[in-house]
Amino acid sequence: MSSSATTLVPEPYVWTEPPLGDAKSAPTSFYTDPEVFRAEIEHIHLKTWFFAGRVEEVASPGDYKALGTVGGPALLVRGEDGVLRAFANVCRHRASILLEGCGHASNIICPYHAWNYRLDGTLAGAPGMREVPKFEKPPHGLIPIRMEVWEGNIFLNYDEDAPDLTTHLGNMPDLVGSHRMGDMVRTWHIEIETKCNWKLLLENAMETYHTGIVHAATVGAQRSVSFPTSGEWHCIQVQSNRSIAVLGQEPPFPVIEGLSEQSRKGTYFTVVEPTTQFALAQDCMWWLAVRPVAVDRSVLSVGGCFPESYTRVPDFEARAEPYYKRWEAVALEDVGILEKQQVGLSSLLARPGPLSWRDDMVLAMNRWVMAHLPAHIVDRMGA
C-alpha cells in the first residue's frame, strides 16, 4: 500500500458546491429526457471504463463469457495461449451474434454462415469466400475491445484515447488494497431488469438516508462516513464492527487476514464512475454494475466474491447462503423503490428538492455526470 493511503481520512460528509442548504436534487429531466440519455451514452458510457466480470469466470483456455454492453454484444475469451481478450461478439460477415452465455469452446463458429474464428480472434475459415476476388482472412478477424484487469476485475472501454484504468481509479487501490480482491473468487451472481434510470441505482447505493425505511426488514438503519478521493470514484463507509453482508446473525466467515485498521471499521461502498460499485465488507466483496438500456430501463448485475481460501472449507455453500439471500433481498428492495421514484420523476409537477447532508455522494455523482455532458445538454435541463 502506498504512502498516499494516509490521505484517505473519513469525514462526516464530503460536500461540493453548491453549499449545504442551497443544494437541490437534480432536475427531473436528468432522469427522464431521452436526449440527456443519448448524450450520456455518447459522452460518458462509450468513453469510460465499465465492469465486465471477474477473471475466474474465464479462467482456462477456451473459456468464454458473452455479455451485453452499452456498445453492443461483447465477448470475453481465454485463448489457447492463456491470454484473456475482449471482442465485439459479432461475426465479421453480417454481424450475427457468435456466442451466448458462458461456456467452453475450441474455436468460435458463427451460427449463421459458419465463419470460423480462433480463440485469439483471427479468422480461420470463411466458407464460400475462396471464390471472392481480393478476399483475405487477416483483415477480418474479430474486432477487439480495449480491456484492463485490476485485482481480478475485468473492465472494458470503447474509447482508445481514454486514460488508462489506473489513472481512472486514482487512489482507490490505497484504501481497499488490503482486501486483496485479486485473491477472491466469484461464487454468486444475478441480473435484474429494472424500470428506472441508471443513475438512480448508483445514487441509491451511495447513501444511507433510506436504509432504515426501505430496508427496515433487512439491513435496517445505517450510519456512514465519507472519503475525499482522487480519480474517478467515490466512497462511503458504513460503520460496523462486523460484516453487514449477512442479516441477523454472526458472520459465518472470519475477517479477511491482513485487513487495514480502517477496513476493519466497516464496509466500503464505492462507485467507480460511471456504473460500477464495489462493496467491501470485512469478510467478502460484492458488486453492483449497471448497464443503461433506455432512459427509464437498466440492467443491474449483482455478484459476490469471497477469498479463495474460504471456498475450500467443506461447508462453504451452507455458510455462503445467508450472504446470497441478503444481497438479493436488499437489491430487490432498492429496485422496488427506485421504480416508484422513476414514475414520480415523470410527474409534470415534480420539482428538485433540498438535499440532506446524507446526500453528499448523490450530489457528487450528479456533478460528475453533468461535468461530462455538453453545455447545451446541461442548459437544457436547467441545472
From TrEMBL:
InterPro entries: Rieske_2Fe-2S (IPR017941), Rieske_2Fe-2S_sf (IPR036922), Ring_hydroxy_dOase_asu_C_dom (IPR015879), Rng_hydr_dOase-A (IPR001663). Residues 49-156 form the Rieske domain. SUPFAM superfamilies: Bet v1-like (SSF55961), ISP domain (SSF50022). The keyword Methyltransferase does not apply. Its cofactor is Fe cation. One of its GO terms (molecular function) is dioxygenase activity. PROSITE patterns: RIESKE. Keywords: 2Fe-2S, Dioxygenase, Iron, Iron-sulfur, Metal-binding, Oxidoreductase. The keyword Transmembrane helix does not apply. This is Aromatic ring-hydroxylating dioxygenase subunit alpha.
